[in-house]
Write a structure and sequence with these properties.
The chain is an alpha/beta fold and about 325 residues long. Helix content is about 40%, strand content about 15%. Helix 9 crosses helix 10.
Length: about 325
């Protein structure tokens, strides 16, 4: 492959991805219930600031503001017909920031779930899902995205539909699922299941992994689950900045820059090649992660006990595959940075 991400992975041992989109936009004034994708048109300077914040903090790759830019999600705002347009705007703004960075920065076109249920229990057909994903993909491609990045997926059917859509759009891609239910996705996928699925796809991703979920500890346990399958495909770790807490009417994540620096190094030592943050991750976290990755020597793969001691305990006893890990009581041992 001659795409930008493949080149970067061939030249570097690790790449720093970006942090949260929603958290940063809420801090800029986005209101709950609003569609962030409208800001690509109405508040382009704030979207530029979102992207620039990641780049200036050291990210080698950032995701576009297009997570919900599909017809299914946009129809909730009477804008289903604008999926291509808003996706293209998101990528165009990203291309502008990346091209002015003074170094190589990859624009990853974010593609979120449709919000509908597929399979026997759902109403969304494979063909309709492919059509929706392809519309978003073509908008991102035409806007200048280097790679497509489907994220926060729970259902294997939806992941496969995205893979087919990206093949139709003739774009390289990455994919992450969210393991937020006792080591499984909401639809029951385990880390081992994901590796098998990714390896069986006709249009396999350049890299795969996990994002969001519960906290950094749980996400690293999932990454270790990927590694245990012996995969040689580059892995992605994009964990939340700590655990969400409701304070004064708002959600706050308790992960400090120091904790996220520890997480980044442990993610690398667990085998992840692309490392970033998800909910709650701000530029200050990214700066600390970059410094840690650059200054701390690689070490052996961390144990579950070491992860729990450094980052806090796991939200469940099991990683979803039948292998028990440290118990939730260790959550209180999180080190404060």
């Amino acid at each position: 492959m001659s795409d930008a991400l493949s080149k970067a992975l061939a030249q570097r041992d690790w790449l720093l991805a970006d942090g949260a989109t929603g958290t940063n936009l809420f801090n800029m004034g986005l209101m709950s219930g609003d569609a962030p994708e409208f800001w690509n048109e109405n508040e382009p300077d704030k979207i530029r600031a979102l992207y620039r914040g990641a780049v200036e903090a050291g990210s080698d790759l950032f995701l576009t503001n297009s997570f919900g830019a599909n017809a299914s999600r946009l129809k909730l705002h009477d804008a289903a017909h604008r999926a291509y347009e808003l996706s293209k705007l998101a990528a165009e703004l990203g291309r502008e920031i990346a091209d002015s960075a003074g170094r190589d920065v990859i624009v990853a076109g974010s593609v979120g779930p449709t919000g509908e249920i597929m399979g026997e229990a759902g109403s969304l057909s494979h063909e309709s899902a492919v059509e929706m994903f392809e519309e978003t993909a073509r908008g991102l491609k035409d806007g200048g995205a280097d790679v497509l990045w489907v994220e926060t997926i729970s259902a294997p059917e939806e992941f496969k539909a995205a893979a087919e859509a990206f093949a139709n759009a003739d774009m390289p891609w990455c994919g992450t699922m969210s393991f937020d239910t006792a080591g499984r996705t909401m639809m029951g996928v385990t880390s081992a299941d994901m590796v098998k699925m990714v390896d069986s796809l006709p249009n396999a991703p350049l890299a795969f992994g996990a994002n969001c979920g519960v906290g950094a500890s749980d996400l690293l346990r999932t990454v270790l689950g990927f590694a245990a399958q012996g995969t040689e495909r580059p892995m992605i770790a994009k964990g939340n900045a700590g655990i969400p807490k409701y304070v004064d009417g708002h959600i706050h994540y308790d992960g400090t820059p120091a904790l996220m620096a520890d997480y980044a190094v442990m993610a690398r030592d667990s085998g992840a090649r692309i490392i970033g943050g998800c909910c709650g991750t701000m530029p200050d976290h990214l700066r600390a992660m970059r410094e840690a990755l650059e200054t701390r020597a690689p070490g052996p793969r961390p144990t579950l006990d070491q992860i729990a001691t450094a980052l806090g305990g796991f939200s469940s006893d099991s990683d979803g595959t039948g292998d028990d890990g440290p118990t939730r009581e260790r959550r209180g041992r999180r080190r404060r940075g």
